[in-house]
Design brief:
Strand order of the largest sheet: 1-2
Shape: globular
Strand content: under 5%
Mean pLDDT: 90
Number of strands: 2
Low-confidence stretches: 1-7
Helix content: 55-70%
Amino acid sequence: MKKKKKNIKQIDFIMFASILILLAIGVIMVYSASSYIALYGKKDSMFYLKRQALWAVLGVTTMCIFMNYDYHKLKKYTTLLMIACVPLLFLVFAFEGVNGAQRWIRIGPASFQPSEIVKYVVVVYMAKSLEYKGNKINSFLYGIVPYLLVSGFYAGMILLEKNLSIASVIMIVTLIILFVAGGRALHLFGIVTPGLFALGVVFIFSESYRRDRLLNFIDPWKDPVKNGYQLIQSLLALGSGKILGLGLGKSRQKAYYMPEPHNDFIFAIIGEELGLVGCLFIILLFLIFIWRGIRTASKAKDIYGTLLATGITSIIAVQAIINIAVVTGSMPVTGVPLPFISYGGSSLVINLIAMGVLLNISRQTDSI
């Protein structure tokens, strides 16, 4: 009697390709955006390129491992991951802060933000728990509040690190997952959303630097030397690029006009060097990724896979939207990196691990 061959499906190639193209563009643009400050600050124009390329190789390797790792096995590590995140979030306070914020744990020359791990751990927890919630999701007290408390706990700890942006991402993604899981629109958008918005306003005005950012967003030229400086330089970069850009490597704003141009405001350098065409291409790639992520979630073989894919896709989508909105002056300045493109090794690796999980879900769907 012949043995049946195991039916191993292929990953979503379109999603995989969009991730790799974004990653390749990111490595190239990190080099282009950082070469000037690296040459004069580190005496090596390829300093940031070497580090980012190394992290990219490590990230792709881990992504390939996790795309072949059954995502259902994550369930048994959920509690352990949630517990481990708590001391990591406290550990950041043992290290010296940067610009008034304490978000990083430093190990030798490397550093990472525990918040980058926490946002995905919250998704894993919600996917596992909501799979068994059933009709209780329709109850505000038993279906919505417990998840708001858990997500709010981690978001609150991240807020203590002076990181309102990632705390906001966690709460936004929590709302998205609850909605997809069957939460009532009245509860989520009639009660929770206004409540979170009110809390956000309180947190913004509770810190002078956040309040200044909001007021300067309305009119950055009111304080062009200090609080409005970064946004003004970003707008100058985007405007200088026009339709086709100045050409790869020919940015002027990266020459000590734009603070750390290879980080959160790298999209402005893309606009300056590659123009509107380059910016639209980046946005198109993110839209393709979001489309395939939604398809993967809708075709997952179980509720756990649907919610896990929804959460992972939402994190990338929300961060990309916020980053591009900030760089283009569509919302107040906040520190959210552009996924796969902004400089940052540990963040890149963690995002790519999550992409491996998402690709594994796509491998186990009914059809793509």
